[in-house]
Amino acid sequence: MKPLFTAGIVAALALGGCGGSHGSAPALPAQSVSGQAHQTHVRHMKNGRKPQDIVGGAPSIRLFNISINLFDAPLIGATAGNAQFNAGILGIDAIDAGGDSWQLIASDAPQVVNLLSLQSSSLQMGSGSLPAGTYPSIQLLLDPATTTVTYNGQTYPARFTDPNHPWWDPGQTVEAVNVPLSITGADGDSLNATLDFNVFQSANLADGVVYLTPTVAGGMGSPTINGTVANAAGQPVANATVIATDSHGVVANTTLTAADGSYHLRGINPGGYTVSVANTFTTNAGVTVTASGADDGAAPSAYALVGPNTQLTLATLRD
Fold it and tell me: Is 0.85 topped by the overall pTM?
């Protein structure tokens, strides 16, 4: 496929687990038959939960609340004036240790959101309650029919190239995007999390179709790492890929530098990260991104330590 434009929105989903925990609570138990875990999963709907659905089958329901915000990042070769990346968002489910799905946030109809409008401010997706316990991941639920890209006045349909349709949707009318966000809540907790839908990593417009390999990063709280990338002469480096790697060597998120060399890394957990710059990078969707204005051979990095709500600005990275 020959790209019509170098696709992308920033902030990659951690390619490994972007996990994190908060508070202390028991893990939700896996269901079992004759002492062995079985493969039949259940989707717990908000309006259909019963006391026996709750941890340990206790008659009193122990719940915690979590609110979720959604960001996005720059699209190479596109601006707010000539492009829209419209995602039809149906909601969010939390996935427990046994593989069961717990409806967290849901809409009766897809909420169509232009992700490119979320580069500097977030969409408040809402909040929901979950039984106390640990949920190793979540799923962002998308409607393929209302997910499109408009570029220079023309609208292109989206085609999901690595379908991950949930087991509860045999008609494959919902795309469930796995987000490696681990959530732990105890009775009465009130938590918040930040997601970053990484269109930079996800999209490739070719042959009149937007091919999507959906990539979403997530983290507890709302830490942000900001900065700029410039060459030795002090001129900005544009379209450089900035990568946040955690202490376990797992890529937590990626983003792109803007025309002025600035970048913002969101959708990460509190903790320490190595922030590095790549002047050539291949996205999850197979698009090769090349920086503009970088010096030959340069590949700077810096260390960043962030808390739950840290807004950290690093010194300029000389590339």
Answer: no
Q: Are 146 and 112 in contact (CB under 8 A)?
A: yes
Q: Give the β-pairing of 311-313 and 224-230.
A: parallel
Which structure tokens are listed for 156?
Answer: 């292109």
What pLDDT, in 10s, does the model give residues 115-125?
Answer: 888 888 888 99
Rounded CA-CA distance 28/101 in Å is 12
DSSP state of 238: B
Helix (H) or strand (E) holding 264: strand 262-265
Helix (H, G, I), strand (E, B) or coil at 242: strand
Q: What is the DSSP string of 42-98?
A: -EE-GGG--GGGSGGG-SSPPEEEEEEEEE----TT--TTTEEEEEEEEEEEEE-TT
Residues 13, 15, 21: CA angle, nearest 5 degrees: 75
